[in-house]
Amino acid sequence: MSDSVQPVTSLFHCNPRELSTANEQSIYTLSLLERHPHTIQTFIPMGLSPLDTQTRFLVMVAPYQFNEDRPYWIKVRAFVATGNQGVTYGVGVWHAPMDECTECEVRDGVDKDVQVFVPPSVVGKL
């Protein structure tokens, strides 16, 4: 392994996010995307019973818009993952961050390798 490459692990405790509702449907509002141009990122649900079939979380990704060096915001895709699935984002993949996370243990180089994109339509609302 090269001297400049080191494995890094971060642990997060995530709680369900409060969703808004309209017409009796839950609504998730995506306000930003992030990417890590030099690292992969893996999320693995932990501490769940193997019998848990209710836990679900959203995985949201967007293609890269090469000519403008940003995510293609209107082509964001969302997927529902279950509590027995892990998710790995490849190097440079634009994705929604884990919301409502409280960092539990820090051994983290992620903050040194993160780029955030907030679309102009959202900036004034933050």
TrEMBL record:
Keywords: Lyase, Purine metabolism. It comes from the Eukaryota. It catalyses: (S)-ureidoglycolate = urea + glyoxylate. Gene3D superfamilies: Ureidoglycolate hydrolase (2.60.120.480). GO terms for biological process: allantoin catabolic process; purine nucleobase metabolic process. InterPro entries: RmlC_Cupin_sf, UAH_cupin, Ureidogly_lyase, Ureidoglycolate_lyase_dom_sf. Transmembrane segments: none annotated. It holds the Pfam family Ureidogly_lyase. The keyword Aminoacyl-tRNA synthetase does not apply. GO terms for molecular function: ureidoglycolate hydrolase activity; ureidoglycolate lyase activity. PANTHER family: UREIDOGLYCOLATE HYDROLASE, UREIDOGLYCOLATE LYASE. Homodimer. This is Ureidoglycolate lyase. It comes from Chytriomyces confervae.
